[in-house]
């Protein structure tokens, strides 16, 4: 099968093509992160789960946190149930991690999302704005504040903020507060890196475009059902709303996880203060 037909056959699928993914999965990352303790927020499904799996493969001790228990419980990752959109939820996670493990070496602020209604600025209430800011900006800020003193003290650590290309390419009619919160997160991440990088802590931002998670797949099905069209037409509509994806499909969670896995590794020891966009070419500017 040639590359074009491979892309077409997998464009709207949540399944990973073995031939495509083998280049990633065949690498031996065992022990690259041995002895490291990592926390992945929103780590029970989608991109967060892919990141947690990638860090486990590299030998890290992985902690995951989310509001709900994992759909597929694992003995490999330590789970903490918590709502990080609330200050007390963040406090509980910080205390439990430090009490049980004594420190944290890698923090992946992956949790995020938008539940605000579509329709532009006029339909958005203060509560809509507050909810998006708490989830997408203030939760990472509070976690950073909880774990950074320990990282600075040991002179080593990595923080990754998972933002979004909507920080630069907002969809005003559907996710305005989310886009604004992610833009603030990118700016905050850069500023934080300037402060703590001289103290041994690297801070980076990863901004994905559209990722084909199981929830994205279900969204395509709902759009197709409501519009009377096909799933392929629904996916094409999403790509058109983004201005097109030159690569022709959404990202797989494992592809984003592989980027994160590299950035937290010793191979990326000189990288800090930078935003890495993984969007299949969606953003039309350099």
UniProtKB/TrEMBL annotation:
<protein>
    <submittedName>
        <fullName>NAD(P)-dependent dehydrogenase, short-chain alcohol dehydrogenase family</fullName>
    </submittedName>
</protein>
<dbReference type="GO" id="GO:0016616">
    <property type="term" value="F:oxidoreductase activity, acting on the CH-OH group of donors, NAD or NADP as acceptor"/>
</dbReference>
<dbReference type="InterPro" id="IPR036291">
    <property type="entry name" value="NAD(P)-bd_dom_sf"/>
</dbReference>
<dbReference type="InterPro" id="IPR020904">
    <property type="entry name" value="Sc_DH/Rdtase_CS"/>
</dbReference>
<comment type="similarity">
    <text>Belongs to the short-chain dehydrogenases/reductases (SDR) family.</text>
</comment>
<keyword id="KW-0560">Oxidoreductase</keyword>
<dbReference type="InterPro" id="IPR002347">
    <property type="entry name" value="SDR_fam"/>
</dbReference>
<dbReference type="Pfam" id="PF00106">
    <property type="entry name" value="adh_short"/>
</dbReference>
């Amino acid at each position: 099968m040639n590359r074009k037909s491979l892309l077409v056959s997998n464009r709207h699928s949540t399944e990973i093509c073995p031939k495509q993914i083998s280049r990633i999965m065949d690498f031996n990352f065992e022990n690259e992160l041995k002895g490291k303790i990592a926390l992945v927020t929103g780590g029970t499904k989608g991109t967060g789960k892919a990141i947690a799996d990638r860090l486990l493969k590299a030998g890290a001790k992985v902690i995951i946190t989310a509001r709900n228990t994992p759909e597929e419980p694992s003995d490999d990752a330590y789970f903490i149930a918590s709502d990080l959109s609330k200050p007390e939820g963040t406090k509980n996670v910080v205390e439990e991690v430090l009490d049980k493990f004594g420190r944290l070496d890698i923090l992946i602020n992956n949790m995020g999302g938008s539940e605000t209604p579509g329709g532009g600025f006029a339909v958005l209430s203060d509560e809509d704005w507050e909810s998006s800011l708490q989830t997408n900006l203030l939760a990472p800020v509070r976690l950073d504040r909880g774990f950074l003193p320990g990282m600075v003290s040991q002179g080593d650590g990595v923080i990754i903020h998972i933002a979004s290309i909507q920080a630069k390419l907002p969809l005003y009619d559907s996710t305005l507060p989310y886009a604004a919160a992610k833009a603030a997160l990118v700016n905050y991440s850069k500023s934080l890196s300037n402060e703590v990088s001289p103290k041994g802590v690297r801070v980076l931002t990863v901004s994905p475009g559209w990722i084909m998670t199981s929830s994205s797949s279900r969204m395509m099905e709902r759009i197709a059902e409501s519009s009377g069209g096909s799933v392929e037409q629904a996916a094409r509509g999403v790509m058109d709303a983004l201005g097109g994806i030159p690569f022709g499909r959404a990202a797989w969670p494992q592809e984003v996880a592989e980027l994160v896995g590299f950035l937290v590794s010793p191979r990326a020891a000189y990288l800090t203060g930078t935003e890495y966009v993984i969007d299949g070419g969606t953003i039309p500017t350099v």
